Amino acid sequence: MEWIILALVGFIAAIVGSLLGLGGGILIVPALLLIDQLSVEMTPQLAVGTSLLIMIFTGLSSTIAYKAQGKVDIRSGLLFFIGSGPGAIAGVLINRRLDIDGFFLAFGIFIIALSIILTFKDKVKPLPIRQERIKLHVDDTGVTHQYGLTPSIAIVLSFFVGMLSGLFGVGGGSIMVPAMILLFAFPPHLAVGTSMFLVFLSALTSATSHVLLEQIVYLYALVLIPTAWIGAKVGAAINRRMNSVLLVRIFQLFLLIIGLRMIANGF
């Protein structure tokens, strides 16, 4: 039964993760910690390490799908990775000091904070961008959007995003997507696609660290990877059919539910 549950978790997590730009770890980590039938005694470190290994394949699968739709800004993703790569390693080192109750509590507070921030999305003005750094993106409805990055701010921000990725095993998209939308005026669909590219790069870095620390359950990963790969493709296909407002609202509600669940488990 545990193998069927794991397969379903990988599939559903990848759909949600790819749809919203999260990576899927936001579901895989708590699932690994909460499923009582697992034959391996699961710690936060093992759950995060295993999740990050899955995120490599979820991120790659989603990036390929979103790139085909023209919804990945490769240059911006690489710029973000300059900060998120070192940050991911820092997060892995911090993760080693967490106990399970503290992990749940910190994870929950972090997720709810993101949900609240998105409530005020329309009232937040993006950071000013120099004229030569402004980029254009034409969405599926034919509307042209302006967005852009300030490199220094993007790198510092992505360092903390990478640190959270290594710490919580969530791929970093749960904070990067709101940041792209709120701070840099990314259209939501482009933010999700670019986030999945960053999820792939950051997970590759973080998972390597966990491999060296022997904090991955490879047997579970073998079950999760195939279904996660398929689920990521499905999530990207669903994303294409959704309007931007609905996408942000679903993202916000999902963060709130998961955050409350994690806090409840932390007490």
What does it look like?
The protein is mostly helical and 267 residues long. It has one domain (2-266). Helix content is 74%, strand content 3%. The protein contains ten helices and two strands. Strands 1-2 form a two-stranded antiparallel sheet. β1 and β2 form a beta hairpin. α4 crosses α8 and α7 packs antiparallel against α8. The protein is globular, with a radius of gyration of 17 Å. It starts with a helix and ends with a helix. Belongs to the 4-toluene sulfonate uptake permease (TSUP) (TC 2.A.102) family. It is found in: Cell membrane; Membrane. It holds the Pfam family TauE. Its main location: membrane. Keywords: Cell membrane, Membrane, Transmembrane, Transmembrane helix.
List the helices and strands and how they pair.
Layout: H1 2-20, H2 25-34, H3 44-68, H4 74-95, H5 100-119, E1 135-138, E2 144-147, H6 151-168, H7 173-184, H8 188-212, H9 218-240, H10 244-266
Antiparallel strand pairs: 1-2
Helix pairs in contact: 1-2, 1-3, 1-9, 2-3, 3-6, 3-8, 3-9, 4-6, 4-8, 5-7, 5-10, 6-7, 7-8
Poorly predicted ranges: none
How many separate domains? 1
Q: Which structural category do the helix and sheet elements fall into?
A: mainly alpha
For the report, how would you describe the main beta sheet?
2 strands, antiparallel
Fraction in helix: over 70%
Trace the largest sheet across and list its strands.
Answer: 1-2
Radius of gyration: 17 Å
Mean pLDDT: 81
Q: Short summary of the structure?
A:
With 267 residues, the chain is mainly α. It has helices at 2-20, 25-34, 44-68, 74-95, 100-119, 151-168, 173-184, 188-212, 218-240, 244-266, and strands at residues 135-138, 144-147. It has one domain (2-266).
